[in-house]
UniProtKB/TrEMBL annotation:
Cofactor(s) it depends on: FAD
Compositionally biased intervals (Low complexity): 295-310
Protein name: FAD-binding oxidoreductase
Keywords: FAD, Flavoprotein, Oxidoreductase
């Protein structure tokens, strides 16, 4: 079978059976074409505006497989996209007619509790990261939603629930292992390839495929406080002003967000907001437990629902318990609608 693929140069490339078999001999992970039944098992893109239709999928098991896939794409001048968690708002983790490098199998997380560091593979999700670090009462500052990929989030900066206290994900990045377009594996850190390290911290995914990240961790948890409020969109001007004023007064242990969105009906959200534009304000307090309730954003008015409750750190984002605001938080935080944060 010949696979027709999009190329960097414009004209399509014809990848024959012999070339595909050579690729499969190189890769210890998976190699799929649309003709394979396993093709549908690839990690889906979160942004349904950019589902993608790759002509070839490589799901590597490790760095060597990534080198093999990148080398294959370079030799054949193929368009290639890399998918970590698949949450790219702009659709950068999807591709039509090209090669999709799906890192879902590379989701390992290794914590060094004495050094307070964690090494995370490029296909791990925030939930994977939090689950392992919380075994040692540690957290590596990352994002807001548990099923976001660590890689894409970090390479874009990495705003999360600890940013006011410990900074963004890139502020806590110690090093990264990167496979360049030339197929070479490099370590980027303050001491090794510092220019590449500078570029990776917020410069996006254009500098190579990051197969692992090493982060600094901080002692947080195992319990934090979460608060979420839904407001009628008609009150947006008042809510935004009050949120702005409130955010200037709270301690660094509180990180918050505000955004406008619309959600479909769901058992996890109150009926008042179903299919109706609303404003969401939400905050996480990661300081001492006794200070949580006094630091909430309860001052905002006309709330459709209020809740503040303890939440285990691995539950931040899409699994915040007993707040009933998880779906709203996920939508507001991941870019399905515009949001702003403080």
């Amino acid at each position: 079978m010949t696979v027709t693929m999009a190329t960097l140069d414009g004209p399509e490339a014809q990848i024959d059976d012999e070339s595909l078999e050579e690729l499969r001999m190189t890769i210890r992970g998976d190699v799929f074409t649309p003709e394979d039944s396993e093709y549908s098992s690839i990690r889906p893109a979160y942004n349904l505006m950019h589902p993608g239709d790759p002509a070839l999928v490589v799901r590597p098991s490790g760095t060597a497989d990534v080198v093999g896939a990148v080398s294959f794409a370079r030799t054949n001048r193929l368009l290639m996209a890399v998918r970590g968690g698949g949450h790219s708002i702009a659709g950068l983790s999807s591709i039509d007619g090209g090669l999709l490098l799906d890192l879902a199998r590379m989701n390992g997380v290794d914590v060094d509790p004495e050094a307070r560091t964690v090494r995370v593979q490029g296909g791990a999700l925030i939930g994977d990261l939090d689950h392992e670090t919380q075994a040692f009462a540690l957290v590596a500052p990352s994002g807001i939603v548990s099923d976001t990929g660590v890689a894409g989030l970090t390479l874009g900066g990495g705003e999360g629930w600890l940013r006011r206290k410990y900074g963004m994900a890139v502020d806590n990045l110690l090093s990264a292992q990167v496979v360049g377009a030339d197929g070479q594996v490099r370590t980027a850190s303050a001491d090794s390839n510092p220019d590449l390290f500078w570029a990776l911290r917020g410069g996006g995914g254009n500098f190579g495929v990051v197969t692992s990240f090493t982060f600094q961790c901080h002692p947080v948890g195992p319990t934090v406080a979460f608060a979420g409020v839904f407001h009628p969109v008609e009150d947006a001007e008042n809510v935004y002003r009050q949120f702005r004023d409130w955010a200037q007064t709270v301690p660094d242990e509180i990180s918050a967000l505000i955004g406008c969105t619309t959600l479909p009906s769901s058992e996890h959200t109150p009926p008042e907001i179903h299919d109706t534009p609303f404003v969401l304000t939400a905050a996480v307090y990661s300081g001492e437990p006794e200070g949580a309730c006094g630091s909430s954003n309860r001052s905002a008015t006309s709330a459709a629902r209020w809740s503040t409750s303890p939440a285990p750190c691995p539950s931040w984002g899409c699994r915040a318990p007993s707040t009933s605001s998880s779906d709203a938080e996920r939508s507001a935080a991941t870019g399905r609608r515009p949001t702003s944060r403080s």
